[in-house]
Amino acid sequence: MTVWTRPMALAHSRALLKSLLDANRYDALVLQNVHIDDADPKGTVQCSMAVEPCHANINGTLHGGMSATLVDIVSSLAIAARGYHSTGVSVDIHTTYLAAPPVGTPLRITASADRIGGTLAFTRVEIEHLVKGTERWELAVRGSHTKYVKGAARPGHLPGRK
Question: Which residues, including other chains, have CB under 8 Å from residue 128's CB and lie 6 or more apart?
Fold first, then answer.
């Protein structure tokens, strides 16, 4: 079996994000400017982006639905970073909103795949925003995501092979 490395985790996570964007569905509408900065083979992914007008609510701040989408997608990227070829389907997503970053604000999104079992994967996500006029990052959204992964292709098992 091949040893899963940081460059492999990063490439695999980026390939998953690209496939979501190339499918030209909902994800492509809102995730075009998400950049995967780092991925660890232990299942941690760090992404960055800025809040754009298409991500904002009527008040000009990060929309709660966009935050939930980031929790969904970036936690899935954390599962992919562990070498999974598919990342399952959502069982539940929880989001707690702590701040409302306005349009133009840089975001840092960190997700960890805390446990991946035979049936379920448990992840957590933090979305931080850069406080205007400072170099300080503050937590804007905390999320958790449980995914059903039974049957997902596991590390070391390429699709179509036994």
Answer: 107, 108, 109, 110, 137, 138, 139, 140
